[in-house]
């Protein structure tokens, strides 16, 4: 915690800033000796690339099903990352307590943007809550989560859609 406060005092706040900051200045402010700044920079290069996840629901009236498209986009492609990170993309239906899609993806290798299409049975009555999660194997606190709720009124054929985006509480702003 002391190191974080020291870095904050010299203006090094997000995870990208230490890689751009003067390594010797970091050592002076934190009271650490050489090669502490180099270790900080090496640690940052081992973090996974930042990924954005979007969910979009579309109706398929002829089939009576909903089509859910999940798109992953890699945001920081220009940086050189030293470690290959894996994520699990898991999609489930809350009402049925059922996982309907699971895929293991290597973050560096997936074509960006990457899309997965899932067919869902439309809710007959009430609501259908679909949750998607992108879970990193090696790190805690940088997972992505999203939720889409489909609601259908019992007296009409209108389907109301409500989308909500939930990102974990410790999602650092520049590296996901």
UniProtKB/TrEMBL annotation:
Single GO MF annotation: hydrolase activity
Q: Which InterPro entries match?
A: Meiotic_Crossover_Helicase
Superkingdom of this protein's organism: Eukaryota
Keywords from UniProt, A to Z, are: ATP-binding, Helicase, Hydrolase, Nucleotide-binding
| PANTHER family according to UniProt | HELICASE FOR MEIOSIS 1, HFM1, ATP DEPENDENT DNA HELICASE HOMOLOG
- Protein name as annotated: ATP-dependent DNA helicase HFM1
From which source organism is this entry? Heracleum sosnowskyi
